[in-house]
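Re: the 148-residue chain
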Amino acid sequence: MDVQELVRRSIGRLTIIRQTFPVPQNISQRCFRGNHRISSTLCDPKDPFAQNMEISNLYIYDTVLLLANAFHKKLEDRKWHSMASLSCIRKNSKPWQGGRSMLETIKKGGVNGLTGELEFGENGGNPNVHFEILGTNYGEELGRGVRK
């Protein structure tokens, strides 16, 4: 079950989850940081950069890596669409002509990041990401204060 399905089914209750990472078969490659299993490449005690990274920073790094990979593929394929017409001003902004193409490139691409393999399944989720349920609390009035 993916996270979106879990959220849909959990209206009216509080469910606490955390991401788990695949356990390497080789015990010497297992790496934990703050109760999170992370890539074994970050466990090198000789690398001060890797030792000081928080889990959220790992996700940010992987996201930038995924986007950079997509931009690189677009440039290599010579299917780049200029972003010269992009504007952050809402009333003047126009949809970027290459936006859908870039999204498809991102979805098709996959990279091996610091948190593991990043790729997109048919539903848009990463099939390599696993979560464990830490606890569930049911409220007396299900759905109270929840808006669609």
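Confidence is low (pLDDT under 50) at residues 141-148.
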